[in-house]
Design a protein that fits this description.
The chain has 295 residues and is an alpha/beta fold. It has three domains: 3-86, Winged helix-like DNA-binding domain superfamily/Winged helix DNA-binding domain (Arc Repressor Mutant, subunit A, Orthogonal Bundle), CATH 1.10.10; 91-162 and 267-293, D-Maltodextrin-Binding Protein, domain 2 (3-Layer(aba) Sandwich); 165-264, 3-Layer(aba) Sandwich (D-Maltodextrin-Binding Protein, domain 2), CATH 3.40.190. Helix content is 44%, strand content 23%. The chain contains ten helices and twelve strands. The chain has a five-stranded mixed beta sheet with strand order 4-3-5-12-6, sandwiched between helices. Helix 5 (103-116) links the parallel strand 3 and strand 4. The longest helix is centred in the first third of the chain and has 28 residues, at 59-86. It starts with a helix and ends with a helix. The model has no long low-confidence stretch (mean pLDDT 89). Keywords: DNA-binding, Transcription, Transcription regulation. InterPro entries: LysR_HTH_N (IPR000847), LysR_subst-bd (IPR005119), WH-like_DNA-bd_sf (IPR036388), WH_DNA-bd_sf (IPR036390). One of its GO terms (cellular component) is protein-DNA complex. This is Transcriptional regulator, LysR family.
Amino acid sequence: MELRHLKYFMAVAEELNFTKASEKLFISQPPLSRQIAELEDELQAKLFIRNNKKVELTEAGKYFEKEVIELFQNLERISIKTKKIAENVSGEFRIAYISSIYSSIISDLIKHLKSQFPYVNFKLFEISTTKQIDALEQGKIEMGIIRSPIQSPKIKSHLWFKDGFSLVYNKKSVQIKSENEIANLKDETFVFFNKDYAPHYHEVLLELCAFYGFTPQIIHEANNINSIVQLVKNGLGISIVPSNVAKNNQDPEIGFIELKKVNLKTDVSIITSKEDESEITKSAVDFLLMKNNSR
């Protein structure tokens, strides 16, 4: 049994007339009758009652018609999915992000993309800016969220938002009420990002402390913003974190003071390959940019 047998059968079943069915299929009537006879022989069942006046489906023919309709519907579904795969809307899409980006926006992004591209397997990686750039250049990820600057001829950068800085401290361990008192913290223990992990960010934090007139005593280092905040919460020091982190942390044991006097901000950017023109990438970037505009 071949697909053409089923197509010929369906044409006759719909027209209930061999002449009209042959015209619809652009073949002559004798070959059509021959194909139907072959199908009936293979099934060992009569599908049509034929006489000089009319053509009717037998009970077996009616059942076969119902099943063939469902079969063709499944074939159409398979064809659509195959086309989607060919159009790069199936497979895997890898997104990297820095730890200071709050998880809710990443969750919203994945929900949005899954609704549009249900066949895609989305993977998330929390990676530093430097490693993200390398991974994107090597084709190991499709999109990244980093803290600029970035210099790469292979990467396209979209500014997502500008982020300021805030002091974070344990309310029980450190007594401070305003930005004017920050210089008094020069003898406090600081928790910073590791210099090798995030060199640019590390330098920015040193610059911030210099603005307030002191060099920080960096005793503890971490490679994750959540780890830094947890160390502060445990009373192991104070730190300076992106204001974006402060806005999304409601822990009553932790205090934040935004550093408004210093005009220093970092660019949080979305990075993609310059050669990437896929619909998934465009949808992801557009969603994040739209989300930021509505904040």
